Amino acid sequence: TNNNSSSITVGNSSNSGLIDYQSSKFEFSTQVSQTLKRVFHLNEFRLCQEGVINAAVDKRDIVCVMPTGGGKSLTYQLPAVMGRGLTIVISPLLALIWDQVRALKEIGVECVMMTGATSTSEQNEIYERMKAGPSGGRKEIRLCYVTPEKVSKSKRLISTLEKVNERGGLRRFVIDEAHCCSQLGHDFRPDYKKLSMLKTLFPRIPIQAVTATLSSKTLPDLLKILRLGPITDGRAAKSTGTVFFSAPLFRPNLHYKVLSKPSNAKSAIAAMGEWIQKNHSGQSGIIYCLSKKDAETVAEELREWSGGEIKTGIYHAGVEDYEKERIHVRWREGKVNCICATIAFGLGIDKGDVRYMSKSLEGYYQETGRAGRDGQDSDCVLFYRGQDAARLSSLIYGDVDGSSKLQEMLRFAQDLKTCRKVAFAKYFSASAHLSASAWDAPDALSSSSGSTSTCEICDNCLRDPSSIITKDVTAETWKILKVAQYVQNEGGRVTLANLSDLVRGLGGGLFGVVGGGEGKKGKRKLNGEKEKVDLEDLGGKITLGKDDTEALLIHLVLLGYLADSYHATAYSVNVYIVPSDMAVRLTRLRLEDVKAGRSVKIECTFPAPDPKKSKSKKAKKSDEDEEEEDKQEDEEDKEEGKGKA
Ligand code: ADP
Ligand code: MG
C-alpha cells in the first residue's frame, strides 16, 4: 500500500488486510479533492487531514489528535457536505460554535446550531427540517452544532435523531475537544461523560472524536467512555475497530520559554508588564492564571501598571455568559488585547501569545496551543518560581493523578537544559500510541525511530551555555535534609518557604519553627539541651541565594529526597515539606564523607550570576544590604501567603 497510485476499493483492502487511509486512493478520492476546492476553496490537505477524511467517508469510528490550529474542523466538515445525511457536532463552547457556523454559512453550507439559547420556535423549525430531510422542500441540514448539555438534557433532540436515523439520514457524531470526556485529563466536563449514550442508542452511527491533547491515560479512558472499539493505526488500519490518527504535535512557530517570576506580587506584575510591552506591545495575548481571583487581580494590576496601555479583560467560569460573549467580541475587535483567564477561556480561540502558569503539562500544552494559530511566530512564556509549587500542590490536592502531573510540570519549569519540544515529546509519548517522533513526522506512527530532534527555538535550545552552572549540591542537600528531619522529629511543620529560610539561617531559626511556630508560642517548652540546638549542629547554613535555594528544594522533591505532606483544614489545604526515606540514607552518612564524595553525587543547575549586575555601580553593595533586601522580600512573601499556608 506504499504505492500511491494503487487503487483500493473500500471494504476490499490490500493483501495484508490492512487499509492505508493516509496514502491510498479510494473510489471517492476525486470527489474528496473536488469538494476541498469547490466548497472550501482550499488547494491541499494539511497533516493527516486526508487520511481522516477517507476513514470518515468510509464510515469508520475515528480518534484524531492534531495540534490546535491544525485543521481538525475540516476533517468532519468535508465528509459532512459530501453525499447526503446529517452530521451532529458536539462542541463545548458557544463562541466556538458561532464562529464555525458563521464560517460554514459564508461558504454556503447548510448548517444550524442548537444551544441553551436557541428559541423554541427556532428549535421547532430545526426539528421539523431534520425529520423531513431532503424531502422537506428546503435544503437538507448537513451539520448541526450542539453543546454537550443539549445532548445530555434534551429528550426531544434524541427522539428526533432516532427518527432521522430510522429513515437512514443520520451520518455521524463528531465530538470536538474530546479530551473533555476524561476525568484523567485536564479539562473534564461532566456532560461530555454522558456522551456514552451515543453508541448505546445509535450503535451503527460512526463517532469521530477530535482533540489536541491526549496522553497515555486519557486515550483508553476516552475509548471506554465513548464505547469505541480498540484502535488501529490510520496508516495500516484493520477493517474493524477505531481508526487512530495523530499529526505532529510540535508547532515550529511556538517559542517556549520559562522566565523567572519575582517573589512578590508587585514585581511579578511589573515583570510580566515589561515583557509584554517589550515583546508584544499592542498585540493579542492570554495570561492564564491559577484562580479566578488571580485572573481578576492580574487584569486590574497590569492595567494600572501600564497606565491603561495594556487593555486587559477577565475571563473565567464565574463570569456571566453574556459578559463572556462580550469579551470574545471585544477581543476579536482588538478593544481588549490581554485576556487574564483561567482554563475556561480559549477552547478554540484563534489568537494569543502570552502565558502564565499551569497545573499540568497537558494543560500547559493545550493552553499554549491557542497561540499563533495563524502560523505566525508566537511566544509561550511560563512565569515561574519555586514557591509556586506549594500553591500548585494545594490546588491539585484530591485530583486524580494530580501530584504526578504537577511533578511533570515542575520538572519542565525547573529544567534549564532539555529542549522544550523534546520534553513535551517525552511526556506525550508515554502513550503507546504516540511515539516520541510523533512530534516530528506525520508518518511517525509507523516509524521505528524513537528519538526527537531538538527545536532550536525554545529558551533551552537558545540558551548560552555559560549562562547556567551545574553545581555539586550534595553537601547542601545533606544540610537541608538534616534540618527537615530535625523539624519533623520535633513535631514541627515547615512549608517550602519556611524551609528555604531556615536552611539559609533566616526566619527566626529552628526554635521559631519547632518551639514557637504556628500558634504554639509559649505552650511548648523545650528542655535546655534542645534549646541549644542550632543550625551549626546540623552542618551550618547553606550558601545559596533565595531563588537558588527554592529551586534546589523543588529539585529535591522531584528527586524524591523531600516530599509534600498535605494537611486539609476546613478552610484550606496546607502543604508542608517532609523528608522521605531516601533522605534517611543520605543523612546517615557523616558530612565529611559526603563532602569527600563518598556518597551519591547530587547536582543541580542554576542560572549563572548575572555579570552585568555584579559589575554595576551597585557592585560595592555590602552583603548586609542584600540580606536586608532578602528579608524585605521575605516579609512581602509572608503578606502574600497570608491565610494560605
Ligand atoms: P483546529 O480545530 O484543529 O484547532 P481549525 O479547524 O479551527 O483548527 O483550523 C484552523 C485554521 O486552519 C482555520 O482557519 C482553517 O480554515 C485553516 N485550515 C484548515 N485546513 C486547511 C488546509 N488544508 N489548508 C489551508 N488552511 C486550512
Ligand atoms: Mg477546533
From TrEMBL:
Gene Ontology CC, one term: nucleus
Biological processes, Gene Ontology terms: double-strand break repair via homologous recombination
Any GO MF annotation of the entry: 3'-5' DNA helicase activity
Extent of Acidic residues compositional bias: 624-638
Residue ranges occupied by any Helicase C-terminal domain in the UniProt entry: 268-417
EC number: 5.6.2.4
Domain Helicase ATP-binding, residue spans: 53-232
Keywords carried by this UniProt record: ATP-binding, Coiled coil, DNA-binding, Helicase, Hydrolase, Isomerase, Metal-binding, Nucleotide-binding, Nucleus
Keyword Coiled coil attached: yes
Primary localisation category: nucleus
Highest rank taxon of the organism: Eukaryota
Location in the cell: Nucleus
Catalytic activity from the UniProt record: Couples ATP hydrolysis with the unwinding of duplex DNA by translocating in the 3'-5' direction; ATP + H2O = ADP + phosphate + H(+)
Protein family membership: Belongs to the helicase family. RecQ subfamily.
Protein name per the record: ATP-dependent DNA helicase
